[in-house]
Backbone:
């Protein structure tokens, strides 16, 4: 059938092309908002404290006196070559984003891990006991998570629950890494991995402790998605004949549920989780601010409150790219997991 | 007196659906003699599938409810077993094949993986290391075949000697497992079974899939095989092939089979005994030749009369008037009634009692 | 055997099966009597329904009572006990003025650090939230749903409809790439901050979901046997669209919409929390948590009550929507009851085509 490894290249390739098309659309929209929607872009770009001279310089540098299409072309070229502008103080945007991203990635991946490890079994339990009190309990639990805005969960966790559990409230580390404690420096820019790479195990444990609260905040709110998807697809799968076949073979209930039923419902759950991961990125803006986590979210928060125009737009584009990439990964995962999908 | 392989006593099963209770099985009792094929025949909706699923407790308990009755499988009260012991009776004790082969196989796993799972369960239980076959349950002796040419694959014990049983290592004996799987596939007349091992179920035809299901069920050497309309979803020609296959296998190994079908002809061909079901009741049971030639219950008579016969030309085809009554509101007493709906829906429906309750039924 | 003068209908076994199962599933049809019974069986949905009703009525009262009372009585009465923006005199304790008072008989939810009554502020924020929730979700449903309908129904490749459909889907994909919060950031940086830009940002990112959802549903329905049969029988496209497609996609859309009201609320208050939504002093639940989050342990009432307000509101809508799904969706409902009865495929397909 059309599922040879070479076909996979075609499969991924087709989707990569789509990705590029969407990226173009994204850039176009940001262009629209930054160049077209504002009557005098440079007034906004240079910040509230800019002088006339700065504004004139800005207009000249950014070709704002040229026709829109030229502007668009130059804009795209600038973005593609990595020139994403600088903050009012002159700090380049793109390198800052690249440095801050891994830290956020660590947070998001941990949250995803929580969601999978906690959310999926909960969904299985709910589906298996459909209609009974256990089902209602699980549903109330994940709907509560859904109903709790990110900031509320974050605030409550960090201020009320964290101290009770003795978990640290802010930052990624208790103390800032120095050349003595981290001889190899920050390689990954991810707190736990960096600590391990530097063989500083107490710092690693410290980093894990710092990671728990913010990741839990992220996970709790979105746990519902994993649970609900799993529950829904399990409810579709459980009445299927092949589950009956698995039971009648003499397999234990546990094996039937997790090896036969779940495998088929995971297909849609994984896809949804992949798409959610993209959205999780933007939720980090709030969580990182509350927990003082040094990632992109914090950067975004700072950029918007301190009128760092280039920084804000840079973050916007970056987040959009993140969403598109996450969707791509989800799509590819679906194609791999469902044996019925033809790769050609 | 040898324990009959299956004895059902007064089994009654209800479904709680929306606003009402739907009596799917009412006081069904039957006893299967070991080594014989018992057929269950009846109209759609008469409860045959419910009966088939109730025996190994495959009914979904929230809507379904076993009101009363007992199911004895080789002396074990299946309905009273604690849930954790239930898998032990299934597979190597009671096995089942279903109607839609496309749905019966897991679409996410290859054929080999699904078949080897069954083989491994059987082997594990034969070693005695897992509490597989219940202590009181001796493995069914497949070698008591009427025909001297007993099918090798099914009569040869998988682990012949106690030494083999001790040595069984599930992962290291991969080649042995593979050989067993291939042998079972050849048993169901699949030529070149090596080619299909790595395929997924959706890449095979319906007939192939049903054969694989049969192979999978038989590979665990069950004492009782329940076949729930195994050929109803297949083309007529494929149906004939699969039925022939099953008949040949049955002649060789003489396992007990409970064969469900709505097709009187298929039952006539496959079964030794037949039970007729109507509206949740088992209205008649007996050797197939006798029930077909001398039916005693009016429903059986009507059913047999309604089968179109090829060589007669007596005018319009006889059929049963009206339809099966509402199984939620069966009146007591008359057990064989047809509900005739007059086209004018405002008029009250007339119940036509075709015959009153027979004594003893 | 006497058939007392009754007409004998010749029905096949399929017919008898349908009759049997139809009678058996009689309770599964949605009549209003049955709805009440089902609501009672789903206690969570009932709770959600009641709370949503209560909240909506309260919001309505907050908005409607002042102008009506002004017209009728000559003076405006408001349900809120105090003016939400009034800085009430703070009691003096010892030799310091302590403005933040815990909940009491006069101030149900206490007062905040400027002396404002928390209960009034929470109450007044309610209609704002509901209005935004309903309007954004409603607009997205109509606009996005309409686009999805077009995109799903007329999507044959190489026709005008096909090209339009493709364009719609590509544009939708682009907008889908922007999370609401992120676009709000962009708009705040370029067009300025405030409630309107915030709502605009949410609107722009919300309609794509409805396009996707509607198109998916339309595609699923389009290929059902009864639609294909209608078309080949000569039924006009318009009739097919309205009679079959629209009626069948309405239910998942309603479910999604109900849950969405809550979701919009969460996003809106999150944007306000960051500071680029509602102006700082306007009573809004996100604003209030943002302003007083740090004092959670000192003066919990200032944070807990707005937080509870949003939690309860969104939970109610979610419970209602989630429960509605199990009640209304004919596929899942019928599939659940059907799958429990191991009938033969002949009967089950007979029931399914009755959609």
Residues:
């Amino acid at each position: 059938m059309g599922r040879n490894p070479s076909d996979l290249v075609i499969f991924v390739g087709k989707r990569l092309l789509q990705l590029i098309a969407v990226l173009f659309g994204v850039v176009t929209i940001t262009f629209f908002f930054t160049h077209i929607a504002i009557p005098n872009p440079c007034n906004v770009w240079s910040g509230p404290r800019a002088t006339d001279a700065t504004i004139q310089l800005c207009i000249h540098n950014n070709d704002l006196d040229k026709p829109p299409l030229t502007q668009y072309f130059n804009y795209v070229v600038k973005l593609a070559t990595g020139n994403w502008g600088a903050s009012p103080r002159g700090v380049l945007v793109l390198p800052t984003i690249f440095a801050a991203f891994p830290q956020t990635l660590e947070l998001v991946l941990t949250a995803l891990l929580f969601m999978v490890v906690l959310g999926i079994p909960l969904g299985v339990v709910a589906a298996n006991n459909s209609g009974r009190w256990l089902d209602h309990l699980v549903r109330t639990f994940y709907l509560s998570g859904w109903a709790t805005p990110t900031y509320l969960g974050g605030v409550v966790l960090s201020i009320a629950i964290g101290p009770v559990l003795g978990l640290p409230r802010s930052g990624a580390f208790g103390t800032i890494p120095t050349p003595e404690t981290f001889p190899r420096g920050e390689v990954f820019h991810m707190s736990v991995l960096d600590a391990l790479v530097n063989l500083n195990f107490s710092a690693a444990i410290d980093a894990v402790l710092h990671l728990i609260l913010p990741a839990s905040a992220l996970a709790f709110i979105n746990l519902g998605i994993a649970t609900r998807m799993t529950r829904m697809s399990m409810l579709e799968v459980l009445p299927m004949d092949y589950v009956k076949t698995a039971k009648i073979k003499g397999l234990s209930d546990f094996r039937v549920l997790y090896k036969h039923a779940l495998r088929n419902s995971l297909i849609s759950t994984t896809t949804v989780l992949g798409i959610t991961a993209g959205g999780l990125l933007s939720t980090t803006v709030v969580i990182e601010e509350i927990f003082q986590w040094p990632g992109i979210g914090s950067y975004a928060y700072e950029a918007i409150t301190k009128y760092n125009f280039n920084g804000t737009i840079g973050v916007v584009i970056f987040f959009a790219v993140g969403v598109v990439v996450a969707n791509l990964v989800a799509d590819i995962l679906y194609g791999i997991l469902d044996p019925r999908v033809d790769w050609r | 007196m040898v324990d009959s392989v299956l004895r059902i006593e007064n089994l009654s099963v209800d479904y709680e659906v929306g606003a009402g209770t739907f009596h799917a099985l009412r006081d069904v009792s039957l006893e299967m003699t070991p080594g014989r094929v018992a057929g269950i025949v009846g109209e759609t909706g008469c409860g045959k599938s419910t009966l088939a699923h109730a025996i190994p407790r495959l009914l979904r308990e929230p809507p379904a409810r076993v009101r009363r009755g007992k199911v004895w499988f080789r002396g074990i009260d299946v309905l009273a077993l604690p849930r954790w012991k239930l898998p032990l009776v299934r597979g190597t004790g009671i096995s089942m094949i279903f109607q839609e082969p496309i749905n019966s196989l897991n679409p996410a796993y290859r054929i080999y993986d699904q078949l080897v799972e069954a083989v491994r369960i059987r082997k594990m239980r034969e070693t005695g290391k897992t509490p597989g076959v219940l202590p009181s349950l001796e493995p069914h002796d497949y070698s008591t075949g009427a025909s001297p040419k007993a099918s090798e694959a099914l009569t040869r014990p998988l682990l012949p000697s106690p030494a083999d049983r001790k040595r069984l290592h599930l992962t290291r004996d991969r080649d042995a497992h593979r050989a067993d799987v291939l042998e079972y596939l050849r048993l169901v007349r699949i030529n070149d079974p090596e080619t299909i091992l790595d395929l997924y179920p959706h890449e095979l035809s319906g007939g192939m899939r049903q054969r694989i299901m049969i192979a999978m069920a038989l590979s665990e050497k069950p004492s009782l095989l329940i076949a729930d309309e195994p050929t109803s979803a297949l083309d007529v020609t494929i149906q004939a092939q699969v039925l022939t296959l099953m008949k040949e296998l049955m002649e060789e190994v003489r396992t007990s089979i409970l064969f469900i079908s709505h097709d009187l002809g298929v039952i006539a061909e496959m079964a030794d005994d037949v039970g007729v079901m109507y509206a949740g009741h088992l209205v008649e049971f007996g050797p197939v030749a006798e029930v077909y030639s001398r039916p005693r219950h009016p429903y059986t008579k009507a059913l047999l009369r309604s089968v179109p016969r090829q060589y007669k030309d007596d005018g319009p085809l006889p059929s049963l008037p009206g339809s099966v009554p509402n199984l939620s509101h069966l009146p007591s007493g008359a057990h064989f009634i047809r509900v005739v709906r007059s086209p004018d829906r405002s008029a009250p429906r007339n119940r036509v009692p075709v015959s009153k309750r027979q004594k003893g039924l | 055997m006497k058939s007392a003068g009754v007409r004998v209908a010749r029905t096949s076994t399929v017919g008898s099966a349908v009759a049997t199962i139809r009678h058996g599933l009689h309770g599964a049809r949605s009549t209003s009597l049955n709805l009440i019974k089902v609501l009672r069986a789903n206690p969570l949905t009932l709770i959600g329904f009641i709370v949503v009703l209560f909240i909506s009525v309260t919001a309505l009262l907050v908005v409607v009572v002042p102008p009506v009372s002004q017209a009728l009585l000559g003076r405006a009465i408001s349900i809120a006990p105090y003016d939400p923006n009034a800085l009430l005199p703070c009691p003096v304790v010892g030799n310091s003025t302590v403005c933040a008072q815990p909940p009491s008989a006069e101030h149900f939810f206490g007062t905040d650090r400027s002396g404002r009554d928390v209960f009034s502020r929470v109450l007044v924020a309610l209609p704002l939230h509901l209005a935004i929730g309903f309007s954004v979700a409603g607009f997205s449903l109509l606009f996005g749903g309409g686009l999805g309908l077009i995109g799903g129904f007329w999507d044959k490749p190489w026709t005008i409809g096909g090209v339009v459909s493709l364009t719609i889907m590509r544009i939708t994909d682009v907008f889908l790439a922007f999370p609401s919060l992120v676009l709000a950031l962009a708009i705040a940086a370029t067009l300025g901050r405030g409630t309107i830009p915030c709502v605009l940002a949410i609107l722009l990112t919300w309609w794509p979901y409805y396009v996707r959802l509607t198109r998916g549903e339309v595609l699923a329905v389009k290929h059902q046997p009864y639609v294909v049969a209608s078309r080949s029988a000569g039924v006009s496209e318009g009739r097919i669209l309205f009679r079959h497609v629209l009626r069948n996609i309405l239910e998942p859309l309603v479910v999604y919409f109900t849950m969405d009201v809550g979701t919009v609320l969460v996003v809106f208050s999150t944007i306000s929390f960051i500071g680029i939504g509602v102006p700082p002093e306007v009573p809004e639940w996100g604003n209030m948590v943002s302003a007083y989050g740090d004092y959670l342990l000192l003066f919990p009432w200032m944070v807990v009550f707005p937080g509870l307000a949003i939690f309860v509101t969104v939970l109610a809508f979610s419970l209602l929507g989630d429960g509605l799904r199990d009640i209304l969706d004919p596929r899942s409902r019928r599939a659940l009851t059907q799958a429990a009865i191991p009938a033969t495929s002949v009967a089950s397909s007979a029931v399914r085509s009755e959609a």
In short: The beta strands of chain C are 92-93, 96-97. Chain C has two domains: 2-62+339-354, 123-326. Chain C touches chain A through 54 residues (CB under 8 Å). The longest helix of chain C spans residues 237-274.
